[in-house]
Amino acid sequence: MFFKFLKRFLAAAGIASASWAAPQPAPILAPARPALWEVSDPDTTIYLFGTIHLLPANYSWRSPALDNAIAKSDELYVETIVDPRHPEGIRNALFALDNSQSLPPIADRVAPARRPLLEAAIAKSGLPRESFDKMETWAAAFRLLGVQFAQIGLQGENGVEQTLKEAFAANGKPIGQLETNAEQLAYFDSLPEASQRALLEGSIEPAQVAGPDFAKMLSGWAKGDVNEIAKTFNRDLSDSPDLTQTLLMKRNANWSSWIEGRLKQPGTVMIAVGAGHLAGHDSVLSRLRDQGFTVTRLQ
Questions:
Q1: 65-87 pLDDT per residue, tens
Q2: Distance of alpha carbon 156 from alpha carbon 292, whole angstroms
Q3: pTM
């Protein structure tokens, strides 16, 4: 279950990965209504919107309630700023962390039976085969997950954050980030090698395996089913307390503290972070409630 969580983390709670050309998915019949909250005091309003970083093309998720929050907001904050048209920032941060001289060849880091899948994924990545032998395992997995996401019809430019950034930029509203690219990637760089190898094995699953897994997560997000989102993440993390601490709890604590500080300044702000960070008993919302703030669900 470990690698399933990390794929969900990349798509719905962590990193907006680069995108590749992808096949067109089947049409979506019903528009999504993902969860939206508000926390406020007399002179400050903060909207909290749970996102999925990667979505199929033509996926309908905007609503009157969300559009109203966007219109009222003076600025937008996302987890980290990744511009698919100018990916130099994320690439530079990745290159600064991804090199290793002490690991075995990349083929030796997966089970022998899965090496054909690894080689097929590498071939589709468009990167030189020899470059993967020099990468840290998490970094190789990160690149190959991009290929996998593309195969099941997901692209970064179709993600929620990119759409929100375009909406705010079109109206001249500032866009900020809660973490730099380097800070976000450093969480993966700090994972134990065994965890990184589990991620690598998950990143080379064929589309017929990866697709249904993502579809389940997408369904919960689309319905605004916070309990289902929390259940999914808690189930996948049940045997990984260190991972829970590093990728979720630590970041949730940082972001809730940031929100508490921002509430001391007047204005209206939208914060868009992965849906997994706004679900469950250790979520950003739960932490804010524990600090005495009233959190109201708007959608």
A1: 999 999 999 999 999 887 767 77
A2: 36
A3: 0.85
Residue environment code for 48-77, b if the CB has 16+ CB neighbours within 10 A, otherwise e: bbbbbbbbbeebebebeebeebbeebeebb
Cα diameter, the chain: 61
Residue 280: both structure tokens together: 């469950």
CA distance 148 to 286: 33
Which residue from 177, 173, 168, 106 is spatially nearest to 137, judged by alpha carbons? 106
CA-CA distance, 136 to 232, in Å (whole number)?
Answer: 28
List the domain boundaries for the chain: 2-297
Q: Give the CA distances from residue 218 to residues 67, 89, 100, 233, 272, in Å, rounded to whole numbers and listed in that order.
A: 21, 28, 35, 13, 16
The identity of residue 184, as a single letter, is Q
β-strand partners of 177? 78
d(CA 124, CA 94): 19
Dihedral sign, CA of 258, 259, 265, 266? positive
Does residue 187 surpass a pLDDT of 70?
Answer: yes
CA pair distance 195, 128, nearest whole angstrom = 25
Of 241, 207, 189, the C-alpha closest to 5 is 241
The residues, any chain, with a CB within 8 Å of residue 255's CB and separated by 6 or more, are 178, 271, 273, 277, 284
- State the Cα angle at 269 between 266 and 273, rounded to 5°: 145
